[in-house]
Amino acid sequence: MLQISNLTKKFGGVKAVDDLSFSVKKGTIHSIIGPNGAGKTTLVNMITGVYKVDSGTVFLDGGDITNLATNKLVHRGVCRTFQHLEICGNLTVIENVMLGFDKYMDKNIIRSCFRAKSILEDEKRYFDRGMHLLELIGLENFAHNEAKNLSYGILKKLEIIRALATTPELILLDEPVAGLNPKETHEVSELIKTVVADEVTIILVEHDMKMIMKISDYITVMNFGKKLAQGTPTQIVNNEEVIKAYLGSGALHGK
Fold first, then answer.
1. Domains in the chain, number
2. DSSP state, 102?
3. N or C: which end of the chain has fewer CB within 10 A?
4. Cα(187)–Cα(19) distance, integer angstroms
């Protein structure tokens, strides 16, 4: 589904991503792991149009999406979450979810000013869809709460649900369980598996190795901006170069 071909990104004299190539199969959870500073978030930013690619190509279903603007990528079925929460705290939970439906909604200024029937119908339709998404993860009771008053764990799940509202084919999740307790981590893991069951492809950047090894279909390991290894969780956990560079010897014993 996604083909990364010889991507490079420099910041000054430093190559944050260095001639990186790999592919992602449709309908899988493909995790990107590596030490801090390996270039994982930079890679996500390049794929999603936040950073311009210096060289190399990104293909989605065979089409070139290199350096395509983020808003245009949403219309191509690509969405993401962020390492640091990007939630509108002054909006309610359901209003945050409805932002994800923006690309479908009637934006005519005149009809909006006069609250035309099409505008009201749009709002009702996408409110109902948003409530359905919240019900999937048990957040419907928080629908009318302002986001700024809710826990970090709830907001992490809300960010994924808002991404789902764009009806994506590919979601990139940047550290979705960072800062969560074990219960919240399990809930987010189950949500991710539910998303993939609906034939949405996931690229997952995460440091929680227990979670990664449990839910990933494939893993790409980065180190100093380069691809160190790629394979199934079993192949990665037994790769001597990966163990030396990142996982540590405890990985062989499930520690």
1. 1
2. G
3. C
4. 36
Taking the CA atoms of residue 82, residue 86, residue 91 and residue 96 in that order, the dihedral angle to the nearest 10 degrees is -20
Q: What is the domain extent for residue 50?
A: 2-253
Measure the CA–CA gap between 224 and 18, rounded to whole angstroms. Answer: 8
- 44 C-beta neighbours (distance < 10 Å), count: 22
Taking the C-alpha atoms of residue 103 and residue 71, their distance in angstroms, rounded to an integer, is 9
Task: Report which of 30, 232, 43, 189 is spatially closest to residue 242, judged by C-alpha positions.
Answer: 232
The tokens describing 60, both together, are: 């989605």
Backbone angles phi, psi at 89, to 5 degrees: -65, -30
3-state secondary structure of 154: helix
**Where residue 187 sits, what CATH number does that domain have?**
3.40.50.300
How many residues would you count in the chain? 255
Tens digit of each residue's pLDDT, the chain (255 residues)? 999 999 999 999 899 999 999 999 999 999 999 999 999 999 999 999 999 999 999 999 999 999 999 989 999 999 999 888 889 999 999 999 999 998 887 777 888 777 888 788 888 998 999 999 999 888 999 999 999 999 999 999 999 999 999 999 999 999 999 989 999 999 999 999 988 888 899 999 999 999 999 999 999 999 999 999 999 999 999 999 998 888 665 544 444
